[in-house]
Recover the amino acids of this structure.
């Protein structure tokens, strides 16, 4: 069974640009969550989707958005990139309505220059 | 509001020695507790979880943790570590049935020396 797949693995963008990251959950999983990991702030929750609906949202500015498609694949978008957006972005999927076990992808390393 | 505290940012230990990584949490509701491990340039891998029932939970790679409700702790232990256990370890909590959101601690780097 394939794990959570995140693409691309590495990305370099310029300040002011926008970026879209993709996450394919484990087959059959309907919940997808996104986290940002930085050395200064650690792991922070961005948002979570279940069956194409955003159920939870973290404390991030509106430049951070996401969506989930009918096949449970999810994308997150960051507009008007800032240097501080440089981070490892992790996606996690789960097959339950409540969080009893989340499976994480390898992440997308975003560098903003 | 929930929070997770991992007091030790780094724990150095010799190979084959026992180790304990500490985790304390605060929450006003019942919680689920997790320990994850992260190797360099990798995502997070679940080591073990506490949902309910027995307070001693066993996980992968010989790790175990004990849930102590009165002390709001969920410390991770391994009786004998290997070089390959060198990694970053994260404790996390979620609010049981009402939330999918994971709150993570700041992480503890376990450094196993030969």
């Amino acid at each position: 069974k394939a794990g959570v797949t995140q693409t691309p693995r590495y990305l370099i963008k310029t300040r002011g640009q926008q970026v879209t990251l993709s996450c394919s959950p484990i087959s059959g999983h309907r919940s997808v969550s996104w986290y940002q990991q930085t050395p200064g702030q650690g792991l922070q929750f961005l948002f979570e989707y279940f069956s194409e609906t955003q159920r939870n949202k973290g404390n991030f500015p509106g430049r951070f958005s996401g969506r989930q498609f009918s096949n449970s694949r999810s994308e997150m978008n960051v507009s008007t990139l800032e240097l501080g957006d440089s981070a490892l972005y992790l996606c996690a999927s789960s097959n339950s309505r409540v969080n009893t076990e989340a499976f994480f992808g390898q992440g997308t390393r975003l560098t903003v220059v | 509001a929930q929070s997770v505290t991992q007091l030790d940012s780094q724990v150095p230990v010799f190979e084959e020695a026992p180790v304990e990584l500490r985790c304390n949490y605060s929450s006003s509701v019942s919680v689920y507790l997790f320990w994850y491990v992260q190797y360099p340039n990798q995502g997070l891998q679940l080591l073990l979880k506490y949902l309910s029932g027995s307070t001693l939970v066993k996980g992968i790679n010989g790790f175990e943790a004990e849930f102590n409700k009165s002390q709001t702790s969920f410390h991770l232990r391994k009786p004998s570590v290997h070089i390959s256990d060198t990694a970053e370890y994260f404790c996390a909590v979620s609010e049981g049935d009402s939330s999918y959101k994971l709150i993570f601690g700041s992480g503890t780097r376990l450094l196993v020396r030969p």
